[in-house]
Amino acid sequence: MKTETKYIILGMLTIGCNTGYEIKKVIDTSFSFFWKMSYGQIYPALKKLVDENLANMIQDDADPLDRKRYEITEKGREKLLEWLEMPVMDQGTQRNELLVKLFFGRHLSKEKIKANLDIQKELVTAKQVILTELEKTVMEQKYSDDTPFWLCILDYGKRMNEATLTWCEETKKVLERSNMDGSTKRTTTKEEG
Fold this sequence. Notes:
CATH superfamily of the largest domain: Winged helix-like DNA-binding domain superfamily/Winged helix DNA-binding domain
Oligomer: single chain
CATH class of the largest domain: Mainly Alpha
CATH architecture of the largest domain: Orthogonal Bundle
CATH topology of the largest domain: Arc Repressor Mutant, subunit A
């Protein structure tokens, strides 16, 4: 289990997500533009948290669905706080297939690359709509201590999307000014010459 998974789940337990399903639901909505997590990560992590006495598992015999509920322990809160206070020294590597394809763009025509950029713009615009809806939902909910932080994260996502949209347009302009023809002609060096 990656360290981040452990602490993200501990954090989820502090906001009222008490089952693996509830944790996954929040990850898929509120975290989706900056973090992904599968059930295959969540359930083993919950078990490990219980094994490490960072969370307790509560089974309600009256629950017809036989759901396992979890709650953070005091030790779990201490570990979460320690992790939250540690500075982030590595932003990780962003995986972006469009950038990989653009890196090898000389093999494509301008039209193909511009079409890929237009698709990217459509995807980012759709994400922007989702973030705007999430922002409205947060604003309509009863204010909590978490609200300003959630709004900051949504603002970050919206600004990143705006930057991507601008980048797509600027990249298309660069391509228009370039003399690329989409060929993969090999240039010869002086030695081959």
